[in-house]
Design brief:
The chain is built from 12 helices and 15 strands. By secondary structure, it is an alpha/beta fold. Bound molecules: S-adenosylmethionine (SAM) and iron/sulfur cluster. Its cofactor is [4Fe-4S] cluster.
Length: 359
């Protein structure tokens, strides 16, 4: 579920969102949009002989879903009721450290919320400002304290490759040490993706700096017991995000909310992806052919530590990947190393070239 509202629009953010304006009834319009979307979704499922299964993961992202507040919890419960959610479902919400309240958390907990993803980004006050965040370091630390005390399962978002990191000597180890004091079980590590109009486009660190930063964080977290189980994700054993694993394993995932993207695996060789439009409760549908599916599954498998089963004839290419430290062979699978995760796009290019030569 994509909830597209934010208190402040951070200048680096890639996601679809609108500024929350208390003088407007944006959430009422959103509720109407969702009600109409649920109907449209039922039609889409019927047209493809698809039915709701009992949901075993629920994920609210955004935007800032925590801004939906207590009203959001009762509205969302009405949406979930006819669908059905498993008793031990993983139910996650993204929360900006400056945008939550105990009553809002309670209301969502009552309807099943049991995991929180926190938009920490950095634990350095100067870099928080550079990143155009409106929450303070104290907001993050206070939120972490509350979550730790109340024994919540939470994940932190952490950004790398941020402007002025080299010039201002960002002390990533100090930030990680502070973060680890709060015993997170899961960390998402994103490399800042800067658009050409990003105000700090001239102040971005170079690729070599970002590579060193990424490999340092990966090593450091591994030393502290985390498993680098996907390009951008680390978890203590047993705390891997179940919801995201569904995307990476190409399992069916339903979506609602503007720009929300869902996926139906129709049969072994056929899938459908749909994306909600932002201005009407309508979807854009894309059918994935056998070939597109196979390519996508290769890419998704290589993203995770489960790895990929390479086809016969690719032994030479796989050997070159392992020799360069990009991959490790384990039984019949190839698993990328942290360096390999960083190089994923160019490894995919290697695969395309190899496939083209084979024909
Ligand atoms: C959609 S945001 C939702 C979280 C919440 N609104 C917040 O900011 O605290 C999810 C995460 O995406 C990441 N993100 C947003 N824009 C990005 C960009 N341009 N490059 C890399 N990561 C980005 C941020 O780390 C953010 O926490
Ligand atoms: S609060 Fe989160 S979703 Fe909203 S603009 Fe900032 S990073 Fe993007």
């Amino acid at each position: 579920m994509h909830v597209p509202f934010c208190k402040h629009l951070c200048n680096y953010c890639d996601f679809y969102k609108r500024k929350l304006d208390s003088s407007q009834n944006q959430f009422e319009d959103f509720h109407q949009f969702l009600s109409a979307s649920v109907k449209r979704h039922e039609d889409l499922m019927k047209a493809h002989n698809f039915e709701w299964g009992v949901l075993d993961t629920v994920y609210l992202g955004g935007g800032t879903p925590s801004l939906w507040g207590e009203k959001g919890a009762s509205f969302f419960q009405k949406i979930l009721e006819p669908i059905g959610v498993s008793k031990d479902a993983e139910f996650t919400m993204e929360i900006d450290p400056g945008t939550w309240s105990p009553t809002m958390l309670d209301a969502w907990k009552k309807i099943g919320l049991n995991r929180i993803s926190i938009g920490t980004q950095t634990l350095d006050p100067d870099f928080l400002k550079i990143m155009d965040r409106v929450h303070s370091l104290d907001d993050s630390l206070h939120f972490l304290e509350v979550l730790q005390k109340e024994n919540w399962n939470y994940s932190l978002d952490f950004l790398l490759g941020i402007p002025f990191s080299r010039e201002k000597k960002r002390d990533i180890k100090k930030e990680l040490d502070l973060l680890l004091k709060y015993s997170p079980k899961h960390i998402s590590l994103y490399i800042l993706n800067a658009r050409s109009k990003y105000p700090h486009i001239q102040d971005m660190p170079d690729d070599e700096f970002i590579r060193d930063e990424y490999l340092f964080v990966s090593d450091y977290l591994k030393k502290h017991g985390f498993h680098h189980y996907e390009v951008s994700n680390f978890a203590l054993p047993g705390f891997e995000a179940r919801h995201n694993q569904k995307y990476w394993r190409a399992e069916s995932v339903a979506a609602l909310g503007p720009t929300g993207t869902g996926y139906f695996q129709l049969n072994k060789n056929e899938a459908l992806r749909y994306k909600w439009k932002v201005s009407e409760a309508e979807v854009e549908v894309e059918h994935l052919s056998d070939k597109e599916l196979s390519l996508e599954q290769t890419y998704l498998s290589l993203r995770t530590s489960e790895g990929w089963i390479p086809p016969k004839g690719s032994e030479c290419l796989m050997k070159s990947w392992t020799q360069q430290g990009y991959a490790e062979a384990q039984n019949e699978r190839v698993k990328l190393t942290s360096l390999g995760f960083l190089m994923l796009d160019s490894l995919m290019d290697d695969l395309f070239r190899w496939e083209a030569q084979r024909k």
